[in-house]
């Protein structure tokens, strides 16, 4: 678990340097946090603002790869424009002479939801006590709030999974990694994204997605049937399915569609009817009110799911009705 950076008095008092270095040279104490796929994430200190930040860049062998550079830049700009309490703020985007394109964002503390669920699966009593069912549902709802905001602005995440849901040390929830997001050219707050509800948008208005040609964006265990089939016309209901898988896993502490190999997993997503959470793990004490929410989110046909993330949020909030 990452700890919260400490505010150091000596970092608040120095005057600004006469010449502020450009590029990554502005930052000191770079330390690798993680690497995955083609990206590198590092922690660093910004002496100008006096705060610890996180810097994401392309791994060195791919620094000059045009597609990887463009993909990272698109991810940075999508993340920067999604200014919501459940997304990570982006502070800066730049190009370094040696390291290429990078972006700087808030350094967050805590851990991802996958790590939490993994410890619960291993019967870690302290984690189970710290993250009871209502709290796990609240965490999923936090990710849904970020998605509702993104959908209203024409962005479909396409890779919602516990590893991309960050749980902060002070109750924060962040939805991370917009690197395979599907982005539309322009959608205002009053416009519904779904193609079958849009009469005025030219299909050519869709921007190129962040994945390479021919790739299926997403993570197999959490894909919607549309993603498995490679459908190009994904909409917010695909994210609804992804969230449904996450919610099922958060309740039952196992994925609903896992097979012994990739083809079996895909076949399960397309054809398997899952057991309602309260029946799949009766020993956990999952409320039956959660069953209807999960099962509707996991409908094979998009038309039978929640038709918007806001609708799903309302349903999630009804699992444990608030009393006044």
From TrEMBL:
Keywords: ATP-binding, Kinase, Nucleotide-binding, Transferase. InterPro entries: Kinase-like_dom_sf, Prot_kinase_dom. This is Serine/threonine-protein kinase PknD. Residues 27-320 form the Protein kinase domain. GO terms for molecular function: ATP binding; protein serine/threonine kinase activity. The gene is pknD_1. CDD domains: STKc_PknB_like. SMART domains: S_TKc (SM00220).
């Amino acid at each position: 678990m990452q700890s919260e950076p400490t505010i150091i008095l000596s970092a608040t008092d120095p005057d600004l340097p006469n010449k502020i270095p450009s590029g990554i040279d502005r930052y000191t104490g770079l330390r690798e946090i993680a690497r995955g796929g083609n990206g590198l994430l590092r922690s660093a200190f910004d002496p100008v603002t006096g705060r610890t930040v996180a810097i994401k860049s392309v791994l060195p062998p791919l620094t000059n790869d045009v597609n990887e550079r463009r993909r990272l830049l698109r991810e940075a700009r999508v993340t920067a424009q999604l200014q919501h309490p459940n997304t990570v703020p982006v502070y800066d985007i730049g190009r370094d002479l040696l390291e290429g394109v990078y972006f700087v964002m808030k350094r967050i503390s805590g851990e991802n939801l996958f790590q939490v669920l993994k410890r619960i699966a291993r019967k870690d009593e302290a984690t189970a006590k710290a993250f009871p069912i209502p709290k796990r549902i609240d965490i999923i709802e936090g990710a849904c709030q970020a998605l509702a905001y993104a959908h209203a602005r024409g962005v479909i995440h396409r890779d919602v999974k516990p590893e991309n849901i960050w749980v902060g040390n002070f109750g924060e929830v962040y939805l991370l990694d917009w690197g395979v997001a599907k982005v539309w050219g322009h959608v205002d707050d009053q416009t519904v994204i779904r193609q079958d509800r849009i009469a005025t948008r030219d299909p050519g208005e869709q921007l190129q997605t962040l994945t390479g040609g021919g790739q299926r964006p997403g993570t197999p265990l959490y894909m919607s049937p549309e993603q498995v089939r490679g459908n190009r016309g994904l909409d917010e209901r695909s994210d609804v399915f992804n969230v449904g898988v996450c919610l099922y896993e958060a309740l039952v502490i196992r994925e609903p569609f896992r097979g012994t190999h990739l083809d079996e997993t895909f076949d399960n997503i397309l054809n398997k009817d899952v057991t309602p959470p309260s029946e799949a793990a009766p020993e956990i004490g999952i409320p039956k009110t959660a069953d209807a929410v999960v099962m509707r989110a996991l409908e094979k046909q998009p038309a039978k799911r929640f038709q918007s993330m806001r609708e799903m949020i309302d349903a999630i909030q009804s699992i444990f009705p608030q009393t006044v």
